[in-house]
Fold each of these.
Amino acid sequence: MYLGRTEIIRTITIAKCIDMETKDSTIKVCEGLFSTSIYEMDVWTLPTDNEDSEEDYMWQLENEGHMDCGLRRELTGLFRTKERALEDLDKALDNRDGNRNIYCTFIRERTLNCMMLPGEYLKEWTYKYCYLHDESIVRNFAERENPFMGRPQEMIHFKRGDIVMIPDDYAGHWGIVWGTPMTPEQYEKMNERINQGHDGDTMARMWRLDWSDDNYTILINADGDHEHILAHHVLPHDGRIPNFVRKTLMEGLRRAEED
C-alpha cells in the first residue's frame, strides 16, 4: 500500500508518543517509510533562437510525421526529496548557458524496493521554468486501485485550436489541440449512459478508465495524424510559433473539423 505524506506524518507523530522500550524499533520503521520514495527530475531546454527553415520542417513532416519544436531533454537527476530536486532546479536556472534556456521540468515520484515498469510513477509534476504548471491526478502504478474519473475543469489549461509543445523521449514537437480531457461531469454522464439497460456490476468492470485516459488529442500535421498525450505533458508554446508551423497545424485543424 502506498503511504502518502499525510500517512507518514501521522506515523511519525505516533512514534513520538510511544514508550522508550519500543521507540527505537518504531523509528527504524519511520526511516524506512521516508526512504520508500525517490524523485527523478528531467530538465528540458529550448534554444534561444528556435526556428528551423521551411525546408527543414518539410523534411521533418515527410520523414518523421511532425515538426520539431526545439525542446531537448538535457539534464536528469535523482533526489531523496522533491524539495531537494527543486533546489537543484533553481541552481540550474541560475547557471544556464547562453545558447539554450531551461523551459520545463518534470519531477516524478517513484517507489524504491519495488519492481516498476519503465515510465511508471506514483506522482508527476510539470514545471514551466520554476513554476508549477500541472500535475498527474491519477498514478500509473497499481492503476486498478486508482481509476480516472475526470480531470477538473480548472486543471484543463488548453482548448481546441491551441498550438502546444509535446515532449517525447529526448526531443519535442509541435501540435495543435483537437480534444481535451474528460471532466468529472462528462465522466458521470457517460457512466450513466453506459449503465442504462445493463447490469451495473458487469458494466462497471468494463467501463473503467485509467491514467492513460487523462489526455489531450493532439493533431501533429496537416494530414490529420494525431496523438493522445497525457494532460500534464502538454506544454504551452514559448510565444514563438514559426509561420510554417502555424499554417500547417491550422490546416490540419480545418480538415479535421470538415471530416
Amino acid sequence: MANRIEVTKLLDDTKYLCYHVYLKSDGASGDLDSFAIIDSATEAMGRNHVFAIDDVTWGFNGFSANLHFELLVDDSLIWVLPPSTGNYVDFKKFGGLKDRGDPADSPGKVLLSTTGFVDNGDEGSLVIKVRKTRFKGA
C-alpha cells in the first residue's frame, strides 16, 4: 500500500490557480521527498511566467512539511508548515512568494516534502493559491 496523496484543482483562471492537497500516511512508505503539487508543464502558463504563492491554509496531524520551488541546481525553500490545525499565511501584502528561478532554467514546480509522515494515521490537508506572474529577473 502507498501513501494516499490527492491533489484537486479548485480554481484555474487566467491569473490564479488554487489546489487542495490531501495526505494520508500508510505507515510504511515514509516521508514525501519533493512531491510536485503544482507543475507549470501541465498548466496554461504564458512564456516567461512563474508562480507566486499568494496564500496557504493547512492542518497536519503528526507531521510537518515544507514547500519549495524546484530549480535545476538547488531547490528554493519557501515556507515551513508545522504540525497543527487552523494555520493560514497570506503573502499577498508582500507581492507573494515568487519562484526566483529563471523560466529558462526552472522546471516551474511547487514541491512538498514532509518530516515525520511515517505513522499510520498521520494525515493532513492544505489549500494553496498561486498567481501566474511574469518573470522580471533576479
Amino acid sequence: MAEKNKNKLLNLPFIALTIILIIYLIIAAILYIIRPLSIAFFTNKPEIIERASSILLLVLFTSIAQPFFEVAKFNLQAVGKEKIALVITGVVNLLIFGVLIYLKQSSELNLKTILLLLSCNYLVLYLIFTLFYRLEINKIIH
C-alpha cells in the first residue's frame, strides 16, 4: 500500500506538468499563428508589433520553462517545505542576478541572453525542487 501511494505522489507532478504543457503549447501555437493580431491587442504601433512578432517564438520557447518551476515549487510546498523552496529560490536567483550583472559589465547582455538565463533559472530550480520533493516523499513513505 505504501509503495502504491509513493508512486502516486511521484507521478502526480508529471501528470500536472503534462496537462499544463499541453495547454501551454496549444495557446502558444495559437498566439504564434495569429501573432500580429495577438500583439496588436496590446499596442497599435506597427514598429512594436513587428519587433514583438520577430521575438515571439523565442519568448514562447523560453517561457515554457516556467511551468516546470511552478509545478515543482508547489509540490515542495505541498509537503511542508516552503522555507526550503524560498531559500533555494533566493540563492539561485542571486546567482543568476550575479551572472546578469557580470554580462552587463562586459556588454554581453541582450534580450536573448536574458530570456535564456531566465529559462535556465527556472530549469535549475525545477531540478533542485524535484530532487528535494523526491527525497521528502521517500522519507514520508519509509
